[in-house]
Write a structure and sequence with these properties.
Elements lengths: L1 H19 L1 H9 L3 H26 L3 H31 L8 H31 L6 H30 L2
Helix pairs in contact: 1-2, 1-5, 3-4, 3-6, 4-5, 5-6
Length: 170
């Protein structure tokens, strides 16, 4: 929950700064690769679907399917990381680094912070795959799996807020 408060503060500051210099923000936003942003969004939404399927399978005592679903979500997370690295590379190659203007400062801070959470989430998903494959299964393990799934959904929710803020809304 603390992460959501931090991101909410960043979003608020972003909107205030955008109001101060709308031309810079609108110009920079037009330089964003909407197709790549959409692809990353689809990948993360798909990963959430896999996490939901994995959790549902675990609750139904079909751990093997749960394990495969969590592994598929983990793969989606890795794809997201690759796409984000591609986007960062394109931005930097085009001369749009964190020091370019206020928009790109926010872009790199917000997406970098989100990417950090994605990387943590990939570790969480790897743990979920391992937990789902264990022979013994009790309430503690189920609580860990549900907490891990909730964390991943939080990471996806943050992206759902970031995507329109950075790529769409002007």
């Amino acid at each position: 929950m603390g992460d959501m408060v931090v991101f909410a503060a960043f979003f608020t500051i972003f909107l205030v700064e955008r109001g101060k210099d709308p031309d810079v923000f609108e110009t920079a936003q037009r330089q964003m690769n909407l197709g790549l942003g959409l692809a990353m969004t689809v990948v993360l939404l798909t990963s959430s679907l896999f996490v939901y399927a994995g959790l549902t399978a675990i609750r139904s005592h079909v751990r093997s399917i749960g394990s495969y679903a969590f592994a598929a979500a983990l793969t989606c997370g890795l794809i997201f990381v690759a796409l984000k690295i591609l986007e960062y590379t394109q931005k930097l190659d085009d001369g749009h680094g964190p020091g370019s203007n206020t928009f790109y400062q926010f872009y790199f801070v917000l997406t970098g912070l989100h990417l950090f959470h994605v990387l943590l989430g990939i570790g969480v998903l790897a743990a979920l795959v391992r937990q789902a494959r264990r022979d013994t299964f009790g309430a503690t393990r189920m609580g860990m799996i549900e907490s891990g799934a909730s964390f991943w959904h939080l990471v996806d929710l943050l992206w759902i807020m970031l995507f329109p803020l950075l790529y769409v809304v002007s």
